[in-house]
Amino acid sequence: MRICLVTLVVLLVGCSKPAEPVAEPAPVPAAAPAKVVKKEDRPVIVAFGDSLSAGYGLDAGESYPDYLQKALDEKGYAYRVVNQGVSGDTTSGGVERIPQALAEKPEVVIVELGGNDGLRGLPVSLSKENLDKMITAFKGAGAKVLLAGITLPPNYGPEYIRDFERMYPALAAKHKVPRIGFLLEGVATVPKLMQQDGIHPTAEGCKIVANRNVFPALAPLLRKR
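Now predict its structure.
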């Protein structure tokens, strides 16, 4: 009997199927890291102008292009603002600096020049010709242009001021580019927003210029990313 039972157990064990190995779950592939756009890789906006763009009399980071960069970042526009403002520059100097601006391969150029021409009493026809060259060169390179207008103190005479102010809308119409009527609109007539020379805005004034005057005119030319 014992022999029979042992034999039966051995037969049963021998007939049972071996345990199948448990398959391990396939590893989950790691998610690809989000692509980070470096500031250097962003399309460029060149602020091409004189002391009003350069931030004359202000600390670093207080010019209107600096505040424009902050506004773009806050509103989700991935652009890099390059400040090419040169204090004291005229439209003739701007023509000479065209290659410098184009070297940045800008997507947009904000042209803000002419004020020093007017303060020196240079012929409006010369200023207009130089601005025309700049706009033509920038558009020819594939950049969009935003033209910023300037006005002059009343002591320059109504006739000269009239011709000077008409220069900007005439150029904007000719080249079909958007225009800021007066860069310092809402700032130039407020003493606390202007420096003691009465020509250049304070840091707070530059912030207003960037957010209220420049950005609304610039935004239609940009792409949100």
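The chain has one domain: 48-221.
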